[in-house]
Design a protein that fits this description.
Layout lengths: L2 E6 L1 H9 L4 E4 L4 H7 L5 E6 L4 E8 L4 E2 L13 E10 L6 E2 L3 H4 L25 E2 L1 H17 L7 H9 L1 E4 L4 E4 L4 H12 L4 H21 L3 E3 L2 H9 L19 H8 L3 E5 L2 E8 L6 H13 L6 E6 L4 H7 L3 H4 L10 E5 H8 L22
Parallel strand pairs: 1-3, 13-14, 14-15
Antiparallel strand pairs: 1-8, 2-6, 3-4, 4-6, 4-7, 5-6, 9-10, 11-12, 12-13
Length: 375
């Protein structure tokens, strides 16, 4: 038996309970992890994003299967599913905040971190992450105790603000989540845009990250595209044995506008004549530039099948995952950008680069490091 993280928003948790609490679902991009890692008798520990609360424990009762019958929304993006048997389910106001000292000081991912800091949140941004066995056993015991006691944890001002962030817009064929920034968010963005960058420091660190991403892709067998203005500096930081993977022109058959957009993306991994993954590296500049380029790409080629990633320092995490849900990015023709584009921290790129035997590793390993803006 193993323990895995299962993320819910307050809205999808309510839908799960209203549909009988018998099926938990995950996105199609998590297909490989679901089939390879999860087995019957494993335990899903349910965590409410935005509220940062533990709300349930579910025992897996089946292997992964695919079904698009609406449970969590209509249409439903959570099509990779497991039948589950609830061990504990708690309503949102009785779910236990992770900030409770008993929990915070116990869990591997939080103890040692200051409450209110942002560094710890990365782990809780992607479902199906395997949890430490001691953490899993501890949380099941704590949730069972809470189920008996039914102690209320009233929403704080922070909780109410997080709940108010959730808005939906109905398009022709679906309902999508958006976030409309408040005055504090807008002031933060204006300050960020007005800040004077440090060109040498920013350029040096972003080039280093570009080089790491490029080297990882080259080791995995991809051909690598770097914009012409960065190429010499990036290639200099890549082992000579990998430099043959870099290409000088894109073997793509798109119109000139699309090609000019693609050529400016910080790192592209290509397989044959197709793009597999695109990475935009952000450092001290506003995260808008990378998000806009990714949105431009999808707007120009809505049927393009490509994985998109924004790469930035950890302190930019919340900014990226909040900005990606602005209406301008959520109302694209093909669907919201947050369904196509994920966040990778600099630390995640470094850890990925240190993975042994990358030449024999599928690029799907990125799923274990990326973070998503849950809707």
């Amino acid at each position: 038996m193993a323990y895995f993280l299962d993320l819910f928003t307050p809205e999808t948790w309510a839908s799960f309970l209203n549909h009988g609490a018998q099926v938990s679902g995950f996105r199609a991009r998590q297909r490989r992890m679901a089939h390879e890692k999860i087995k019957p008798s494993d335990i899903f520990l349910c965590y409410l994003v935005r509220l940062s609360r533990w709300c349930g424990a579910l025992q897996v009762d089946s292997m992964a299967f695919e079904d698009n019958a609406p449970i969590f929304s209509d249409p439903d993006p959570f099509v990779i599913r497991f039948r589950v048997r609830p061990l504990v389910t708690l309503e949102a106001e009785r779910a236990v905040p992770i900030f409770e000292p008993e929990i915070w000081n116990q869990l591997t991912e939080t103890r040692g971190s200051a409450r209110g800091s942002s560094g710890w949140t990365g782990y809780f941004r992607s479902s199906l992450r395997k949890m430490d066995d001691a953490d899993g056993s501890f949380l099941v015991t704590l949730l069972e105790r809470q189920h008996k006691q039914q102690k209320e944890h009233p929403f704080s001002d922070r909780d109410r603000k997080q709940l108010a962030r959730k808005m939906t817009v109905r398009t022709i064929d679906r309902e999508v989540a958006v976030e409309v920034p408040d005055e504090a968010d807008e002031e933060e963005l204006l300050n960020e845009l007005a800040a004077v960058p440090l060109p040498q420091l920013e350029g040096r660190q972003s080039i280093q990250i570009q080089a790491k991403i490029a080297a990882i892709g080259a080791q995995m067998g991809f051909r690598i595209w770097i914009p012409r203005g960065d190429r010499v500096r990036v290639v200099e930081q890549v082992p000579e044995s990998l430099r043959a993977a870099f290409i000088d022109s894109l073997p793509l058959n798109y119109d000139d506008t699309t090609l000019r957009t693609i050529e400016q993306i910080d790192v592209l991994w290509l397989k044959g004549r197709s793009m597999a993954r695109a990475f935009e590296v952000e450092h001290t500049t506003a995260v808008y530039s990378g998000l806009l380029r990714m949105a431009d790409l999808l707007a120009l080629q809505p049927n393009m099948d490509i994985r998109l990633h924004i790469v930035a320092p950890e302190e930019k995490r919340e900014k990226v995952l909040r900005e990606i849900k602005r209406p301008v990015f959520s109302l694209l023709e093909r669907g919201p950008l947050y369904e196509k584009c994920t966040f990778l921290s600099y630390e995640a790129v470094t850890l990925l680069g240190d993975t042994p035997h990358l030449a024999h590793t599928s690029d799907s390993i990125i799923e274990e490091y990326e973070e998503v803006a849950e809707d």
